[in-house]
Amino acid sequence: MSHLLRRPKIGQSKIHDISQSTANWKYVGFGVYNLKKGDKVHEETKSNEAIIVVIEGKIELEVDGFPTFGVIGDRMDVFEKKPPYSLYIPPNHEWQGLAETDCVIGICLAPGKKDRKPKVIGPNDVIQLERGKGSNLRKINNIAMEDQDEADSLLVTEVFTPQGNWSSYPPHRHDVDDYPNITYLEETYYHRLNPPQGFGFQRVFTDDGELDETICVKNHDVVLVPKGHHPCGTPFGYEMYYLNVMAGPIRKWRFANSPDHEWLYDFDPDK
């Protein structure tokens, strides 16, 4: 199994618990809770800021020292594709949740810097767009990208890839700290498939071939992207969803295309 692949922990409520140290990098942490109605969860952000994404279901969330944020979430199935509810939490805070329904939440983590206050990021705050064309078309829910002042370090987005299509494609990388040309951003991909018995593929590779991993991803898998290009695709019959978390020295997303595949940006599949 690839060292970049993290399988879910079956039978546990926290199916992913990826810290900066266990990922062997510096900026991104990521966790996933798969909760049953009535389950409780409690964590401390410590030196990280956090964005809790309610991937599906409803949960009551509280942050120490602040009034309850009540029950948030109205997307009962992630493949409804509606923009989600999320909650931003600054460093050095405790938070707790009570599952109002069966629910899945993603815990996006990165070093915090400013003295921000907790804030609900509602569906109206999410920027929806489409990217690509032909079999490269996908739908985007930008939860906290750089043009949204929702965090100090975190960049968070959701992508829905139709059956038979590709995403994060043409291949691109963001693994060098050379702003404004390119930025260094670590990244995690949390994958879901519809129907859930499906599979997809993700390739993580560098131009010099030092890293070249092709990974078969299944429902609830996470792929780590420490460097290199990282396209993914899904076969006929299966939709793919992924939640992206990125962070690095600066909160900017600047990337470089793979020179072998850059011609695809000018390719028109209808001609």
Helices, strands, pairings?
Elements: E1 5-6, E2 14-18, E3 29-35, E4 40-44, E5 48-56, E6 59-63, E7 71-72, E8 86-89, E9 94-99, E10 103-111, E11 119-121, E12 127-131, E13 138-144, E14 155-161, E15 166-167, E16 172-173, E17 175-178, E18 182-184, E19 186-194, E20 199-205, E21 212-218, E22 222-225, E23 232-233, E24 239-247, E25 256-257
Antiparallel strand pairs: 1-22, 2-3, 3-10, 4-9, 5-8, 5-10, 6-7, 6-9, 8-11, 12-13, 13-14, 14-24, 15-23, 16-25, 17-18, 19-22, 19-24, 20-21, 20-23
Mean pLDDT comes to 96
**CATH level 3 topology:** Jelly Rolls
Number of helices: 0
Q: What structural class do you assign from the helix and strand content?
A: mainly beta
Main sheet?
A: 7 strands, antiparallel
The number of E-state strands comes to 25
Radius of gyration: 18 Å
- Give the name of the CATH superfamily: Jelly Rolls
Percent of residues in beta strands?
Answer: over 45%
Verbal overview:
With 271 residues, the protein is mainly beta. It has a single domain, classed as Jelly Rolls, CATH 2.60.120.10. It has no helices and 25 strands. The protein has a 7-stranded antiparallel sheet, with no helix packed on it. The chain has a 6-stranded antiparallel sheet with strand order 2-3-10-5-8-11, with no helix packed on it. The protein is globular and about 55 Å long. The termini are far apart. The mean pLDDT is 96.
